[in-house]
Amino acid sequence: MSDNLPPCPQCASEYTYEMDALMVCPECGHEWAPADAQAGERVIKDSVGNVLSDGDTVTVIKALKVKGSASGIKAGTKVRNIRLVDGVDGHDIDCRIEGFGAMQLKSSVVKKA
């Protein structure tokens, strides 16, 4: 109950307190992350929880169908030099796959190599 803690965004109570990395309101029970923690960079993880970054090499872990192609991307295909983007519909990796060209992948179907 300090003067520098923000009021609850749900009920506007001034009696908020910190609990680990969260802010908590004792009146309504609402929990939220403070604004400074939300301002940080978005962390993208692969299918097993490894943090991905631009330029990483990843391996596709399951066979993927590709629209307009008779064959898809096989499991085990290595993808080099990825770029992390805010893609559409969960596609957060921008890459170039040999034999297919430029495309976007979901981080849930790759594993860091």
Topology readout:
Blueprint lengths: L16 E3 L2 E3 L6 E2 L2 H4 L19 E3 L17 E2 L3 E2 L6 E7 L3 E6 L3 E3 L1
Distance between the termini: 47 Å
Strand element count = 9
**Number of DSSP helices?**
1
What best-fitting shape do the alpha-carbon axes yield? elongated
Q: How much of the residues is beta strand, in percent?
A: 25-35%
Helix content: under 10%
Integer average pLDDT? 87
Estimated structural class = mainly beta
Biggest β-sheet description: 3 strands, antiparallel
What is the strand arrangement across the widest sheet?
A: 1-2-3
What is the N-to-C order of secondary-structure elements (H for helix, E for strand)?
EEEHEEEEEE
Parts with pLDDT < 50 across at least 5 consecutive residues: none
Describe this entry's structure for a reader.
The protein has 113 residues and is mainly beta. The protein has one helix at residues 35-38, and strands spanning 17-19, 22-24, 31-32, 58-60, 78-79, 83-84, 91-97, 101-106, 110-112. The strands form three sheets. Strands 1-2-3 form a three-stranded antiparallel beta sheet, with no helix packed on it. It has a three-stranded antiparallel beta sheet with strand order 5-4-9, with no helix packed on it. The protein has a three-stranded antiparallel beta sheet with strand order 6-7-8, with no helix packed on it. Strand 7 and strand 8 (101-106) form a beta hairpin. It starts with 16 loop residues before the first strand and ends with a strand. 15% of the residues are buried.
